[in-house]
From TrEMBL:
The keyword Transcription does not apply. PANTHER family: DOL-P-MAN:MAN(5)GLCNAC(2)-PP-DOL ALPHA-1,3-MANNOSYLTRANSFERASE, NOT56 - RELATED. It comes from Galleria mellonella. The lineage of its organism: Eukaryota, Metazoa, Ecdysozoa, Arthropoda, Hexapoda. Keywords: Endoplasmic reticulum, Glycosyltransferase, Membrane, Transferase, Transmembrane, Transmembrane helix. InterPro entries: Glycosyltransferase_ALG3. This is dolichyl-P-Man:Man5GlcNAc2-PP-dolichol alpha-1,3-mannosyltransferase.
Length: 493
């Protein structure tokens, strides 16, 4: 009879979950994102396999990557001599090692299909890390991901149809962000530096990360973390630095590189002469610096709040855990006492008495079923076991928003955006938009226009202008929201 009651209780619990309100919460409530995240991962696995199997692969940089790595594997360590069909090698040493590994895995770069499946794994792993951040922050409703992530043609193309190195750098970045959220500083620094070693766009996060180190760790430990980041770059690049240090630094970290106007997504409306002029590049750099000067003080206040509240968590969490342990112990003791009393009573009653009690219990159950809703009230428990909990994960918002906005500023001020650069900030766009006070329609409109701009090939004067307009609205929306929140916080203090 005990097992039958347990099954009945389990059935009732499941039945209560299968309601319209619960179904709505799975779509609308950020707290329910773990369930939606599982469905998104499964859906993405299916979508990516279908894309690989049914959509023709387009060669852009993969062969050039393999040619560059082949030169390295043949013993060439002078960066100026490592070239492919698209030109000289322009990425740091981490890229060379990773793609050399792919070179052997894919039969010297010939097995494209295997490479595509490797990138499916890279995409799913990154998506898992992205969703983990969104689960912690509880900022964005699940339906946003179901619409934006699953329907992005360009992002799937970048990962599994083009095999660019940008996704690998971004994957390292998200490993790093998750590590910082878990308080694993050394691991975070290692993966951040590894991301930079694949492609230098990860340095766009550096201004925010530097102040995050400084506020949380102090100057001494900040120097340690910077040393770790630096030593990784040195160790990875050492063979090439010994061979030709100038060629390596100029090739892998060329901040003055002039991009080809043919591939630009964001400045199609400029003529080639203006696009390639040094004055234009310096103007963009000046705008980038001004925006950082505007946003970084607000980011620093967020980081300070994060640091204080994390300190509070360290003080409070042991007390919460102790209370919950005590509550659990009381519950176990109570259950044990009931079991002992029941066992003792069973030892004393006769067979006839047991039959009478069973028939009496059945009669009571039958009576309660007949009464229907008349007896729906449950007796009030005299003493309930309380579970204490504070969701400290939501503090992640104070870390993630500054990191995402600083990277977004770098993307918005980039001297040129190529199609694969969409992966630099695509997965942060929902968070940034839901950090604005825009209506839901406005948010989705901005997402749709941005997706349209990145899907238009070749880019046009209109799409380039629209992309800048969308970037401006997001920057303005985030600035206004952060300013209002900090004003409220200052009044409370």
């Amino acid at each position: 009879m005990g097992n039958r009651n347990k099954i009945y209780e389990m059935f009732q619990t499941i039945r209560k979950k299968l309601t319209w309100s619960y179904a709505v919460s799975l779509v609308m409530n950020p707290i329910q994102l773990p369930v939606a995240a599982f469905l998104i991962i499964v859906a993405e696995l299916i979508i990516n396999i279908l894309v690989v199997e049914r959509v023709p692969y387009t060669e852009i940089d993969w062969k050039a990557y393999m040619q560059e790595c082949e030169g390295f594997l043949n013993g060439t360590l002078d960066y100026s001599k490592l070239r492919g069909d698209t030109g000289p090698l322009v990425y740091p040493a981490g890229f060379v090692y990773i793609y050399s590994f792919f070179y052997f895995l894919t039969n010297y770069g010939e097995n494209i299909r295997l490479a595509q499946y490797i990138f499916i794994g890279i995409y799913l792993l990154q998506l898992l890390l992205v969703l983990r951040i969104y689960i912690k922050t509880r900022k964005v409703p699940p339906y946003v991901f179901l619409i934006s992530i699953l329907t992005s043609y360009r992002i799937h193309s970048i990962y599994v149809l083009r095999l660019f190195n940008d996704p690998i750098a971004v994957l390292m970045l998200y490993v790093s962000l998750n590590s910082f959220l878990d308080g694993k500083w050394y691991l975070g620094s290692i993966f951040y530096s590894l991301g930079v070693s694949v492609k230098m766009n990860i340095l766009l996060y550096a201004p925010a990360l530097f102040f995050f180190y400084l506020i949380n760790l102090g100057l001494k430990d900040t120097v340690k973390q910077l040393f770790i980041c630096g030593i990784i770059q040195l160790v990875l690049g050492l063979p090439f630095i010994i061979s030709n240090p100038i060629a390596y630094l100029k090739g892998s970290f060329d901040v003055g590189r002039v991009f080809n106007h043919t591939w630009t997504v964001n400045f199609r409306f400029l003529n080639v002469e203006t696009f390639e002029s040094k004055c234009f590049h310096l103007t963009l750099l000046a705008i980038h610096i001004v925006l950082l000067i505007i946003f970084l003080p607000m980011c620093i206040k967020y980081f300070k709040s994060y640091c204080r509240l994390k300190y509070v968590q360290k003080q409070v969490q042991p007390q919460i855990d102790a209370k919950n342990t005590e509550s659990k112990r009381r519950k176990l003791n109570k259950s044990k006492q009931k079991f002992d009393m029941k066992a003792e009573a069973q030892e004393k009653i006769t067979k006839e008495q047991e039959d009478f009690l069973n028939s009496f219990e059945a009669m009571l159950q039958k009576s309660s079923q007949k009464s229907g809703k008349k007896n729906t009230k449950k007796p009030i428990a005299l003493e309930e076991d309380t579970y204490y909990n504070i969701n400290f994960d939501i503090l992640s918002q104070l870390f993630i928003l500054p990191m995402f906005i600083v990277n977004f500023i770098g993307v918005a001020c980039a001297r040129s955006l190529h199609y694969q650069f969409y992966s630099w900030y695509f997965h942060s766009l929902p968070y940034l938009l839901w950090s604005c006070n825009f209506t839901v329609i406005t948010r989705f409109l901005l997402l749709a226009v941005i997706e349209l701009c990145w899907n238009t090939y070749p880019s046009t004067n209109l799409t380039s202008a629209l992309l800048h307009i969308c970037h401006f609205f997001i920057l303005y929306g985030v600035y206004k929201k952060i300013s209002s929140e900090l004003n409220v916080a200052s009044k409370v203090q």
